[in-house]
Design a protein that fits this description.
Largest sheet: none
Structural class: mainly alpha
Low-confidence stretches: 1-6
Oligomer: single chain
Shape: rod-shaped
Radius of gyration: 72 Å
Amino acid sequence: MRSVSEIDAPLSDWTLAASIGLNTNILEINLINLILVVGILFYYGKGVLINFLDNRERTILNTIRDAEERHEEATKKLQKARIRLQQAKVKADEIRINGLTQMDREQRDLVDAADKDLKGFEDSKNFAIRFEKQRAIEQVRQQVSRLASERALEGLNSRLDNQLHLRVIDYHIDLFRALRNKSD
């Protein structure tokens, strides 16, 4: 009897069987294993990878769209702010011009009022001076009249004697008679 190990097989089959076995070259094995793993992953993971990349693309596109919308909104807000700033500058210029105009008008009014008051004071002063001048002139007249009357009275009293007094009376009586005769 023969043993199992002693099976009759052709010699060429034994050489083939001797070549099947474990390959101990690590570089060749890793490359083969890597290609097999990548191939399996690509075949079965292609759908997951495509879905992941599609989701990532949509996320990026949404982010870009949101950024563009925010940029557009910010640009509009900036434009509105610039318009409001320009309007505020115009309003500030108007207020400044109105303030300067009002200040000039009030200054002119104040100067006019001061001139009017000064003219009033000047007129009042001139009136007071004229009044005082007329009063002084009147006082001087009264004093001159009084002094002239006193001097004339003194002169008459000193020159008037009884005989002159009688002649003046006779003159006036004759004058009275002449007037009376003319009227009859």
